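= Tokenised fold =
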Amino acid sequence: MKQTNLSIFIPHKGCPNTCSFCNQRFISGSERAPTPEEVRAVLASQVNILSQSGLKAEIAFFGGSFTAVDKDYRRALLYAASEYVKEFPEQYAGIRCSTRPDCIDENILDELKLYGVTAVELGAQSMNDEVLKANLRGHTAEDVRKASRLIKSYGIELGLQMMTGLYQDKPSYCLDTAREFASLKADTARIYPTVILKGTMLDELREQGVYESFSFEDTVDLCAKLLLFFEENNIPVIRLGLHASEGVEEQMTGGVYHQALGDIVKSRIMLMKMREQINRLGGRRFVVYTDKRNIGTVIGHCGENRDLLAEEGITFKIKEKSGEYLEIKAAPQKLKQ
């Protein structure tokens, strides 16, 4: 059975400071934290929908630093969620939450375990202390390491979240962060290219001309490398880029945001794999054998891969071949354009 998240946003609640990039109200699309009764209403409304779609969901408390919110409020939310996990085990697979690395300790994990929390995601953002300090994160890379090891020791799934293109960031720092995530045995990862929002420190630095995030092209290339690395290390990337939100689109002043970013990056990875085989074969005309579901990715977002290769004098046609396939052979004759 396929699994999904049913996200319940707790905007900015519990965060001990405001980071350089943060305007959580716009990111989450929500200004007010839900009551336990509202959480129950949402969960009740989704039971039949999940049943009919054949999906199981983890109830996900996202948007703020969940383990730093008021203790009574947090426990009330966890209790509400745990009721539905127990009553509807075919629809709800467990509870997950996101929080800061410096808001995890044994007492918190004892509580999360008691209420049946199955996964904790840490907003690490970077494993470079200079970047963390420059962006007012208020924690260190060592805090991430300690919290990650503690979560794993409790048998709770570990998710690690990273950002690219922060103030004073470098692509090499991002790749180093991914390597640290692998060494910490992350079960999942999320990659968020920086979006500069109005009213944030990053926006002020942008206006002063002292900061510019990575370009769109550089971000796509970097995220392609990150996805390949995580794939090689068996770490599923469960999100690439912020969710589509009018608040984000209206409030962004810079950085990288695209509703189809994940598809664009996957197409870029496919282009890298195609070039690898093409370079080995040599020549200009090819046949690409791939599964039907991969055809769009081979062609590229808005035909980008075909266009880029055409600029190099390379043409190809596609033939379907079932399975996890990408095989390229020299074309026996001139391809029809």
